[in-house]
Amino acid sequence: MRVPVILLNYNSASDCRKCVSFLKRQQGVELEIIIVDNCSREDNSDDVKELCQKQGCTFIPATKNRGYNAGNNIGLRYAAEKGYKYAMIANPDMEFPQEDYIQKLVTKMEQDDTIAVCASDIVNPDGRHLNPQREATYSEELFWFREIMRNRKSKKWYLCDSTQSGYCEKVSGCCLLLRMDFMQNIGFFDENVFLYSEESILAKQVKLSNKKMYYLNDSQAVHQHIESQKGAIKPRMKILFKSRTYYLRKYSGYGRLKLNLLLFSKHLQYIFY
After folding, report:
1. Across 104-174, where does the E strand assignment appear?
2. From the CB of residue 51, how many other CB atoms can be counted at a distance below 10 Å?
3. What is the 8-class DSSP label of residue 97?
């Protein structure tokens, strides 16, 4: 089976190069590696374009950086036009030591057509597992200061048991396999968020569509993500607050009173940071 893998590049040419080298070693599936350049610096964009020419990848430049969802949608719409059954989204800083990684995910999707999103065990350089996840409860989100104290050391933010495969509520957006007919039915990723809360929105869209997410624990990838490289916290919190507010208003299903209390609490959280 031929599967497209979409990498969204933003000034990450070196990560793209390393990720492509891992993807080229994948066995059991034929890949079309698609790199969408999300308005990187000219030198970085040129490096990625050259990488695509040398490695036989598809290069698609975005005309404007409209964030994670909109950037990945460029690749997904391309995949839809070519009639692909599945598409994989992967951050450029992903590594795939297992050469049958993608094959395992595809096999699971082929076995169960209720699965719209399939994800693997993913570990950070510090050994922390990122999947599977759950959404925060209302009280956990309302009393955010309590959750910060509880999870400050462990960093186990709403993580579930990573030792067992099975259906799950939510997975990390850094690497996942998507069923294309589902993505077309929902109109692709919601482009109203620039960054953050994408996973929560996707999880809700899967649930509302009577589809499922699946976590496959015997397939593992590494997310070479370094927290300190994210930049200043205040601008990130502003984007996070805006995205979370959008998610809560459109997707949470909370009544007006509960929603307003939660939004007020979120506003306090933003001020605190």
Report:
1. 115-123, 166-168
2. 20
3. -
227 pLDDT tier (thresholds 50, 70, 90): low
Q: Distance (Å, rounded) from C-alpha 36 to C-alpha 7?
A: 6
Summarised one tens digit per residue, pLDDT across range 119-167 is: 999 999 989 999 999 999 999 999 998 888 877 655 667 899 999 999 9
Q: Going by DSSP bridges, is the β-strand pair 30-37/58-61 parallel, antiparallel, or unpaired?
A: parallel
User: Could you tell me whether strands 115-123 and 175-179 are parallel, antiparallel, or unpaired per DSSP bridges?
Assistant: antiparallel
Say how far apart CA 170 and CA 204 lie, in whole Å.
9
- Distance (Å, whole) CA 249 – CA 263: 9
Sign of the CA dihedral running 188, 38, 128, 265: negative
In DSSP terms, which residues pair with 220 in a beta bridge? 121
Taking the alpha carbons of 148, 150, 151, 154 in that order, is the dihedral positive or negative?
positive
**How far is 151 from 100, CA to CA, in rounded Å?**
34
- Domain spans in the chain, listed from the N-terminal domain onward: 2-272
What CATH number has the domain spanning 2-272?
A: 3.90.550.10
Cβ–Cβ < 8 Å for 6, 20? no
What does the pLDDT look like over 232-266, one tens digit per residue? 677 888 999 999 999 999 999 999 999 999 999 99
Q: How many Å separate Cα 60 from the centre of its chain?
A: 19
Please name the amino acid found at residue 110. E
Q: What pLDDT, on the 0 to 100 scale, is given for residue 269?
A: 86
Torsion of CA 159, 71, 183, 113, to 10 degrees: -50
User: How do strand 166-168 and strand 94-95 relate by DSSP bridges?
Assistant: unpaired
